[in-house]
Write a structure and sequence with these properties.
6-stranded parallel beta sheet; 14 helices; 3-stranded antiparallel beta sheet; 32% helix; alpha/beta
């Protein structure tokens, strides 16, 4: 049995919350996507299959966020449609919107009835930027993500696919699951205010607290983007290394592990007779300390790195990665999208799924007791029109006490 089996969700979200409904559907919820007569915005977001936007089903974005959902068209100018939406909401456990369920749709969601009402917006429902217009790029910037990306010789650049809206939708799905759990204990619904900006900040991991701890931005980002990072004056840091079939990331930065990585690579190269005689037979496990105390010259260290570069360029990414695993050192392949599709680990675990002739990403988690649902393809526009005439039965009135009889609202995970 799936975790959210029997949970009913009305999805009015735009791009900021689209992923939330998709995740809830994977957890077993019945999710109804409410679309305007022209179809949801996600149907017109690229990239597109065949590089062609038909406004219906060619959007790869829609194919991803629409999977597992049902589709009902609601025309806001049609009184019967508006009533049908009100009736659907009366039977729903969860409502996801952009914070505009009242103004845009004329609804009056009421968490006191037990409804979980989640609003996913760019900046949140209050504060000086609440209600500001925003696009993907502006929220990636406002969340600090953009400052961490790009190369040092040019302005920051976004990655090719929207990130902030995915973070916002993913955070909203987690928030909703927590609220549903709390409702099981207290019997009460509640309003959830999810900010895509705040969710993006959380996703920057170490970068957001870096300034608080160190009083500066992460080295090599933001205002230090163009500065050359150095192991030692005159010895620049290099992270990406050319291989026979692409690139690998090899790091020598971490104290101890960085020196171990250089030593193991030099030892490997020496076994393959690719180390100059005067550099052979040495231990490189303390080269940073030896460089600092003068017992090792900077020219010798440069030649060590040149030797590693020449050697790694004769190996495949897989060989470099296997070496890193075997020696517990900091070597990793840089994957292309094609590499991910061909990854044996994912293949053995049956991660990818074929849906309507296309290979799709599979379940984000494996749970033995409440497995995720294998989702069907995203629906055609108004594929579930019958729900306008035959909506879900109304949700029972909210209780004033949990099944345990407390009715209290302590910490959500109190007692776990």
């Amino acid at each position: 049995m799936s975790a959210l089996l029997g949970t009913r969700v009305v999805d009015l979200a735009g791009r900021w919350g689209d992923l939330a409904g998709r995740i809830l559907a994977e957890l077993g919820a019945e999710v109804v996507k409410i679309e305007p007569p022209g179809g949801a915005t996600a149907r017109r977001l690229g990239p597109f299959a065949g590089d062609r936007c038909d406004g219906a089903g060619s959007s790869l974005t829609w194919m991803a966020v629409g999977r597992g959902k049902r589709s009902v068209v609601i025309d806001r100018d049609d009184a019967d449609h508006r009533k049908a939406l009100t009736d659907l909401l009366a039977g729903a456990d969860v409502l996801i919107d952009n914070g505009d369920a009242g103004d845009a749709w004329g609804l009056e969601p009421d968490p006191s009835t037990g409804l979980i009402w989640a609003s996913v917006t760019p900046y949140g429902l209050d504060g000086p930027k609440a209600g500001w217009a925003a696009d993907e790029l502006s929220i990636e910037a406002a969340g600090g993500l953009l400052a961490l990306q790009g190369d040092g010789d040019r302005p920051p650049l976004p990655v090719g696919y929207q990130q902030a809206s995915c973070h916002g939708g993913g955070q909203a799905a987690a928030d909703i699951c927590i609220a549903l759990y709390e409702r099981e204990r207290s019997g009460h619904g509640q309003r959830i205010d999810t900010s895509a900006q705040a969710a993006t900040i959380l996703a920057t991991m170490h970068a957001s607290p870096w300034a608080t701890v160190f009083g500066a931005n992460v080295p090599g980002t933001c205002d230090t983007r163009a500065e050359v990072r150095e192991h030692h004056p005159g010895l620049p840091v290099q992270l990406l290394w050319r291989t026979v079939d692409g690139w690998a990331q090899i790091s020598f930065l971490l104290p101890g592990m960085g020196e171990d990585t250089s030593h193991e690579l030099m030892a490997w190269a020496e076994r393959e007779a690719m180390v100059p005689d005067d550099l052979a037979g040495r231990s490189w496990r303390r080269w940073k300390a030896e460089l600092a105390d003068g017992s090792l010259s900077i020219e010798e260290v440069r030649r060590m790195f040149d030797t590693i570069a020449t050697f790694v360029a004769t190996r495949t990414r897989r060989q470099v990665f296997d070496h890193g695993l075997a020696t517990r050192t900091l070597c990793a392949p840089i994957y292309t999208a094609e590499d991910v599709l061909e990854d044996r680990q994912l293949d053995v675990r049956g991660y990818f799924q074929d849906v309507d002739g296309l290979r799709r990403a599979g379940a984000f988690a494996r749970m033995t007791g409440t497995p995720l649902v294998e989702l069907p393809a995203a629906p055609a526009i108004d594929a579930d029109a019958d729900l306008r005439d035959h909506p879900w039965p109304a949700r029972p009135e909210a209780t004033t006490a949990s099944p345990a009889g407390s009715g209290r609202r302590d910490g959500v995970f109190d007692g776990l």
